[in-house]
Amino acid sequence: MTLAVRAHGWPRWTWQTWLTVAGVGLLGNSVFQTLFLIGIRLSPAGVAGVVNGMVPVLVLPLGLLLGTRVTRRQATGVAVAFGGLLTLLLLTRQPGSPVTPGGMAWLLAAATAWALYTLFNRTLSGRLGALPFVAFSLALGSLPYLLYAAPHVQLGGTPPLAWAGVALSGLGANVVAYLAWARGAQVLGAARTSVWNTLAPVIALMLGAALLHERLPLPVWAAAAVILSGAALANWPARTAAPPTGGTRHNAPTG
Questions:
Q1: What is the pTM for the complete model shown?
Q2: Which of 20, 127, 131, 136 is the most exposed place for a label (fewest CB within 10 A)?
């Protein structure tokens, strides 16, 4: 909020706009965090990251409700990703599988909440400005979750390293990542930037294996690869026609 106010001043929005920003922020923060944290308790971190990687895929069919057109390539990517997700769901029926139906249900609900937030984000960011919308939707949308969590916070006996982890997670995910992502979109364009969404689940899988020592069976890795391949295909930037170059001459200025 400090960065947003310094850059753009205090927003002069109507009360309807404030309610809209707060409502969308509630969906993308309190609702999403609640669903995701329940799901990640029941699932390996790597699997949670893969399911969260379904967000750019879910955005496409949900966007149809708002009149967004979907290309054939995007539809193919969505079908491939959902095929991998179906495989992941079938693996939950195997005895001893680290993936549970309950965990998958909570994670999919969280991914759907974030996909809806993303759809509204695109419209409101363009109208209100990306930094003001993100800052105030985050602050207002997190307030109910903060009020819910405050009574459960244990100030006494909490090691400083734990508070450092909370600060690093909050600033990294909600400030640094947002600003870096916005800057990347400015440099690369929205279409190319969306492909990089696929990297987050890949990194989550690798960190889960390296740091948390998660040992996922080969079929789970295969299903994850199918999901991420579909997500990358669905969000791959379309080719734009190159301007004609034949017969072009660069003449020296005259006169």
A1: 0.72
A2: 127
